[in-house]
Structure formats: structure tokens, C-alpha cells
Amino acid sequence: MGEAGARVSWDALCAFLAMGGYAPFVWGSYGVAALCIAVEISFVLRRLRKSRAAGANTALASA
Amino acid sequence: MASVLYTYASPQAFYPLAGRMIPWFAGAAAIFAAAGLYVGFLVAPTDAVQGESYRILYLHVPAAWMSMFLYLVMAGWAGLGFVLNTRLSGMMAAAIAPTGAMFTFLALWSGALWGRPTWGTYWVWDARLTSELILLFLYLGFLALREAIEDPRRADRASAILALVGVVNIPIIYFSVQWWNTLHQGASVSLTRAPTMAGSMFAGLLLMTLAAWMYSIAVSLARVRAIILERERDTEWARQVLA
Questions:
Q1: CB count, 10 Å around CB of B119?
Q2: Is A13 within a domain?
Q3: Using CA atoms, how far apart are residues B148 and B131, in angstroms rounded to an integer?
Q4: A1 falls within a domain
Q5: Can you give the residue range of the structural domain that contains A49?
Q6: Which of A9, A16, A36, A51 to mutate to test the interface with B (most CBs of B within 10 A)?
Q7: B69 CB within 8 Å of a chain A CB
Q8: What is the pLDDT of residues B95-133, one digit of tens each?
Q9: Residue B79 lies in a domain
């Protein structure tokens, strides 16, 4: 791919990211959704780790 | 079949089963989301009226559907636990609630960001938007009530009543666009007639809905595993699992 080809795909990417002028609304929606999902997954994994550790302590104490 | 269901209705049997199911549902969620985003952003055409802003709907519509569907599933588990007094039911209801609240928030948030360029406003107090906001408060109330009651079995029963009373809000949300003259548009997708949109748009919507569904199952199963361990850690089986 030559310099012109690279420029075309760069322009295409810029046009895609601009979302026809609606970029703040479109990426604002999907960005917050991605953030919510990331936060929820990390909370659930932490809760699982904590419950396992607490359970293991109980098991140890009673052994 | 019934005996299989009874077997897995105990937290002890459900804990390892949930653990085995999580990777499958999580993997399916990732695949459906990748396919849905690809179709929604790169295959589906630009909307003639709304331009590119309509692509928010690939997030908004599945989130709104899940917010209502998860509430019904949550209330179903809560009601089952209330009637049959089974331990796992209350745990399932508690595991679904945070994910339902998250999808309700995302439906409201993405709806606001879609409404601003499309309607010219982030928010109006019309029946659809207001009843969806009430749904968020129902989820948060359900979670707050559970937090406020120390004994988990009593928390199950009290929150079940709240969840069951709140079910009345679901048909209000769903039919609000027909019952009242709302700014929010009516349904473009229904079971009784062909969807009123391009095929690729419908495919994107369907894939994103499947992704949201698979994600909800995976994350709820992971959360219910944590809840099972929190509540059953003093039992013999839990000691054996964790030892």
C-alpha cells in the first residue's frame, strides 16, 4: 500500500470516528457502557476472591 | 427432568454447575458482541433521517430489553423463593439485581445521548422515560432493602415482596408508548409482524441482544457463586470445596 492508500484508510478511520458529527453521543454511550461492564466484572471477580478467602479461613479455623 | 431440577436447586449442587457454565456464556457474550458491533457499525447502512446517531440504538434497545427482562427473571426467582422457601432462589434474585440495575442505567444514559441530537433534549418526563427511571429505583430499592436486613433469609422474603409489587411497572414501561402520547416512539420490532427496518440493522440489534443476554447470565452466575460462598461458608460442603 502506497502513501495515497495509507491516507485513504486514515481518512476513513477519521470519518468513522467522527460518526457524522455525532461522535460525543455515540462514543459517549458505548464508552460508558464499556466502563460499566468493566467495573461490574471487576467487582464480581473481587467479590468471588473475597468470599473464597473468607470461606477458606473459616474452613481452616474449624479444622 | 424434575428430579434433575430438584438436585440443582440446592446451592451445594449449583455452585460447581455455575462454575462450569460461566466460561461458555462469557465466551458466547464476547462472540455475539464482536459480531453485533461489526454488523452495527460496519455493515448496517446510515439511517436516512437520524444519520450516524442511530447507531446508539444497538446499545440502547438491548439494554432496555434486558432491563425489563432481568427484572421479570429476578422477580420470578424471588417469588419462587417466597412460595417454596428455597435458599437458592433468593440468592439468584440477589445475583441478578445489580446487572439489571446496570442495564437500566445504560438504557437511560444511552437514551439521553440519543435523544439530545434526535429530539433536541436529553430528558423529558414522558411515560416511557419516567417508568424506566422508576425501574431503576425499584432495582436500587431492592438492593438497599437487602443490604438493610442482616439475616439473609429475612432479606430474601422482604425483598421478594418489593420485587413482586414492582412487576406491575414492567407492562407500564412496555405499553407506555401505546397507552400514552409519548415522545418516545413505538416498537419497531415485535413478535407479530416483520421488523420495520433494514435486515442488517435488525441483525445487529439481534446480535447485541444475544450478547447482553449471555453477558447477564455469565455475570449473574459468577455473582451467585460468590453469594453462595458468603452464605454457606459454615456448611460442611463449603468447607470441603474450599479446603
A1: 15
A2: no
A3: 25
A4: no
A5: 21-63
A6: A51
A7: no
A8: 999 999 999 999 999 999 999 999 999 999 999 999 999
A9: yes
Any domain includes B68: yes
Contacts of B240 (CB under 8 A, 6+ apart): none
In a domain, A61, yes or no: yes
For residue A27, being part of any structural domain is answered with yes
**CB-nearest partner of B56 from A21, A25, A52:** A25
- Best of A30, A36, A43 to disrupt the B interface (most B CBs within 10 Å) is A30
Q: Nearest CA of chain B to the CA of A7: how many Å?
A: 19
Contact A59 B219 (CB under 8 A): no
Say what the ipTM of the complex is. Answer: 0.90
Domain range for B144 is: 53-187+194-242
Q: Are A30 and B59 in contact (CB < 8 Å)?
A: yes
Q: What is the pTM of this model?
A: 0.92
Contacts of B122 (CB under 8 A, 6+ apart): B112, B113, B115, B116
Q: Tally the domains of chain B.
A: 1
Q: What does the alpha-carbon distance between residue B106 and residue A36 come to, in Å, rounded to a whole number? A: 8
State the total domains in chain A. 1
**Assign residue B124 a region: left if phi > 0, alpha if psi is -120 to 50, beta otherwise?**
beta
